[in-house]
Amino acid sequence: MIILGSTGSIGVNTLIVAEHYNITIEALVAGNNIDLLNQQIAVHQPKLVAIANEADRGRVNHPRVLCGAQGILEVIEHSQSRTVVNALVGYAGLAPTLKATSLGKKVALANKESLVVAGEFIDMSLITPIDSEHFGLWYLMNERPFSKLYITASGGAFRDWELDKMKDATFSDALKHPNWSMGNKITIDSATMTNKLFELLEAKWLFDTSNIDAVIEKRSVIHALVEFVDGSTTAHFAGVDMKLPIAFALKGEVTKEILPPTNLLGIGSLEFLPIESTRYPIWNIKEHILQNPHLGVVVNAANEVAIKAFQKEKCSFFGMSEMVLDAYKKFENVKANNIEEIIQIDREVRQYAESM
Ligand SMILES: NC(=O)C1=CN([C@@H]2O[C@H](COP(=O)(O)OP(=O)(O)OC[C@H]3O[C@@H](n4cnc5c(N)ncnc54)[C@H](OP(=O)(O)O)[C@@H]3O)[C@@H](O)[C@H]2O)C=CC1
Ligand SMILES: CC(=O)[C@@H](O)[C@H](O)COP(=O)(O)O
Ligand SMILES: [Mn+2]
User: Measuring from atom 27 of ligand 1, which residue has the nearest CA?
Assistant: First the structure.
């Protein structure tokens, strides 16, 4: 197996699961965290390694180190492994997903942006999601006909803040996720509800349905619900730990305990709340983008520019969704016919967003 993004939140959890199942690690890909990568190299002895920057090559304790975006593609190209775990973050994960699937490799996909940006052009038969909600949906559906899918949202860092106070929220405020410990980008996306919008699109491509919605469940005890044609609804309860979805993505079936069972008497009351666009302005486009999922490339590109601007204090918290919604309006008539056009649209949207 090869792991793209081994030094990140998902990558580290994936290595724990891989050790649990004695899965051989053929290659590791990291960005800048060379110290952690060297620790992982010492334990897993990969044949091949890639990192983001050439300047760090000398610090990596390995004889075969590739670098940059091209280096990641070469790792995939030269690997014998049938499975690639894509735990890279953002648009940077798309080309590796396309490379792996073009070689017929299975992709255990945490990098949801691959599907948000180019789901139409990805072979879903090779994709297994590493995402708690989509694992839950798959677990519940169990190949039975359903009438509607639901995923839950924690509400993110500002779910209980006064709207007025959110106007002055900072990047570090937004990193305080109420339930999960994750990488920075997804945590910011949780605060704006962009992560949930992305997850609706992810589910559209994975399960070929737009009949899906999201509700806030603040405890993140329930991750997904499926409403079946008979009118019954089942819910997926699981602990706040990605090792369960990862174990299923790697092993297909899991026959022993991965997480402590849910203590039903310890949960207390559960509540489902609506996602309101006054607090999460990105939710204004939810219905439209579900009917026009090809516009995911626009939202993702503008969102990545907006997050960088927010981090550099060049825009406010709500300024991020203003940037995204502006770009969405500007590019609402684009439709890519192939990956080359996806790449072009991404470039144009980023240029537009950066000029705002
Ligand atoms: N964290 C979670 O619980 C969940 C995450 N996801 C999704 O999984 C993906 C990964 O998320 P997460 O683990 O939180 O992200 P992190 O930011 O924690 O990790 C990202 C990983 O990608 C590496 N990386 C980033 N840029 C590059 C680059 N240019 N070249 C090589 N490596 C790079 C980082 O390296 P380094 O750190 O060494 O710089 C790190 O190993 C995202 O798409 C996210 O939406 C989905 C569900 C849950
Ligand atoms: C763990 C996981 O799957 C994340 O996508 C998490 O669900 C994000 O939390 P939010 O529900 O706050 O977006
Ligand atoms: Mn999720």
Answer: 31
How far is the C-alpha of 212 from the C-alpha of 201, rounded, in Å?
A: 9
What pLDDT score does 143 carry? 86
Q: Each residue of 20-45: pLDDT tens digit?
A: 999 999 999 999 999 999 999 999 99
β-strand partners of 236: 224
Task: Provide the terminal-to-terminal Cα distance of the chain, rounded to the nearest Å.
Answer: 42
Q: How far is CA 270 from CA 150, 232, 254, 265, 351, in A?
A: 15, 18, 27, 12, 44
The verdict on the CB of residue 174 being under 6 Å from ligand 2 is: no
Is a pLDDT exceeding 90 seen at residue 271? yes
Helices of type H across the chain: 9-20, 34-44, 68-78, 94-102, 113-118, 132-141, 163-166, 171-174, 184-192, 194-207, 243-251, 264-267, 286-291, 296-311, 317-330, 339-354
336: three-class secondary structure by DSSP: coil
Closest ligand 2 atom number to CA of residue 242: 1
As for ligand 1, residues whose beta carbon falls within 6 Å of it are 5-11, 29-33, 52, 87-89, 92, 110-113, 131, 180, 182-184, 186, 242
Residue range 59-113, pLDDT digits in tens: 999 999 999 999 999 999 999 999 999 999 999 999 999 999 999 999 999 999 9
Q: Residue 9: nearest ligand to its CA?
A: 1
Q: What is the pLDDT of residue 178?
A: 96
Alpha helices in 193-257 (DSSP H): 194-207, 243-251
Where do the domains of the chain lie, and which CATH numbers do they carry? 2-129 (3.40.50.720), 153-240+275-291 (no CATH)
Contact 18, 97 (CB under 8 A): no
The pLDDT assigned to 302 comes to 99
- Segment 226-254 mean pLDDT: 97
CA 56–ligand 3 middle distance (angstroms): 32
